[in-house]
């Protein structure tokens, strides 16, 4: 059985090593995406104009007036002092062609006091420029920039399958790390003084043992981040009742015109605070997400600057009908069945934010270690492959030598006769 597990571990590891190396390094960086992005791009994130900020709805209207081919699809409803008002936009539909207007940006930062633009960018564009670097790494982490063809999102399926292989390989690895009861101590040791290949082997084996639990958590949550609807929810539903996913089960309505979308945005922003109180949400409305093409709006509840949800299971969201203001669905962390709470915990666990600052530090360390696991795994394979090749060549040489000796013995009598 062990030889089979060794072979599976070898080929599973080699098959996903490059993916895990990229995901590990980028994951370590994007655990601090806001902080690093702001450090690299201070004028995009920070505003120094004194005075009271303009209402968010007013800022959205000014932005759309300046850019009539763009509509605001996400905006903060409040801004931290000294920060810009940062909105996401999408292109409007050109009535002449039925296609979206071309836009070379999807995120805009405004001075919240004056409404003046401080910067714009195409979030997630493949670019190493400081303005695009962190969003590029974020997008690379989750998608590898793989395409969607024939209705198949290859980024989702590739990273989801990598996560499943990684999870299975993790259980194989822990079995291989403890070959017998007598040698269990070796699986926790690091022979630092010996260095070289020995240390690489210990980092791979013993490091994996020490961090095995965290690695399994990251593997499971990586599956959830990519194949939540396709794999994780069906599996969890076998063990626990699940409420419908509010972001996937809301029936879309007819699209809204630009004038109707403006009115709907005002309507939803106006009723959001009372709607949150009725649902028992203590946090204020913090962000408004709009999908005018289907007449649906969602409000996230959080204090200014806490859009990621820094501790716990994340932020509450309520989803509304844009025309009527009726509440369509809700996602409130901590509410629901055990399965619902498990699903809610996936992103906070994957990002480390469930434990606040210590969790993010842990995820950074795990991401770097995942990259190191990939490298040391390849190093171990190369070393053993060379040894196997050298052994095979030595065996072939020995066999050839023996064959030559046997042939010489057979011909010796004939040479003696002649």
From TrEMBL:
Instruction: For this UniProt record, give its keywords in alphabetical order, as a comma-separated list.
Output: Membrane, Transmembrane, Transmembrane helix
Residue ranges crossing the lipid bilayer per the database entry: 12-32, 154-178, 209-229, 361-382
What Pfam families would the database entry show?
PepSY_TM
InterPro entries listed in its UniProt record: PepSY-ass_TM (IPR005625)
Q: Which protein are we looking at?
A: PepSY domain-containing protein
């Amino acid at each position: 059985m062990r030889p089979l597990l060794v072979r599976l571990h070898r080929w599973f590891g080699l098959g996903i090593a490059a993916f895990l190396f990229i995901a590990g390094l980028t994951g370590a960086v994007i655990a601090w995406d806001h902080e690093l992005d702001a450090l690299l791009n201070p004028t995009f994130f920070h505003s120094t104009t004194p005075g009271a900020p303009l209402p968010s709805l007013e800022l959205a209207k000014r932005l759309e007036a300046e850019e009539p081919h763009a509509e605001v699809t996400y905006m903060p409803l409040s801004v931290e002092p000294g920060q810009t008002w940062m909105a996401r936009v999408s292109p409007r539909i050109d009535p002449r062609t039925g296609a979206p207007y071309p836009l070379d940006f999807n995120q805009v930062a405004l001075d919240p006091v004056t409404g003046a633009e401080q910067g714009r960018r195409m979030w997630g564009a493949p670019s190493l420029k400081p303005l695009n670097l962190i969003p590029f790494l974020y997008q690379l982490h989750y998608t590898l920039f793989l395409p969607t063809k024939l209705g198949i999102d290859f980024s989702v399926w590739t990273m989801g399958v990598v996560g499943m292989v990684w999870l299975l390989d993790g259980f194989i690895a822990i079995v291989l790390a403890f070959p017998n009861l007598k040698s269990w101590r070796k699986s926790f040791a690091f022979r630092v003084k010996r260095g070289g290949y020995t240390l690489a082997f210990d980092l791979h084996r013993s490091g994996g043992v020490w961090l095995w639990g965290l690695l399994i958590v990251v593997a499971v949550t990586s599956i959830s981040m990519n194949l939540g609807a396709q794999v994780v929810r069906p599996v969890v539903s076998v063990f626990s009742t699940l409420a419908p996913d509010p972001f996937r089960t809301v029936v879309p309505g007819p699209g809204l015109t630009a004038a109707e979308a403006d009115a709907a945005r005002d309507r939803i922003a106006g009723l959001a605070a009372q709607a949150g109180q009725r649902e028992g949400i203590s946090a204020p409305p913090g962000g408004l997400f709009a999908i005018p093409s289907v007449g649906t709006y969602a409000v996230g509840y959080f204090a200014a600057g806490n859009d990621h949800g820094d501790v716990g299971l994340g932020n509450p969201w309520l989803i509304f009908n844009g025309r009527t203001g009726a509440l369509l669905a809700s996602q409130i962390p901590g509410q629901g069945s055990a399965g619902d709470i498990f699903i809610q915990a996936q992103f906070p666990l994957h990002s480390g934010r469930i434990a606040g600052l210590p969790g993010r530090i842990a995820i950074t360390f795990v991401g770097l270690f995942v990259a190191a696991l990939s490298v040391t795994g390849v190093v171990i394979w190369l070393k053993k492959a060379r040894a196997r090749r050298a052994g095979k060549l030595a065996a072939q040489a020995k066999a050839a030598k023996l064959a030559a000796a046997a042939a010489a013995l057979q011909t010796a009598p004939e040479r003696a006769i002649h």
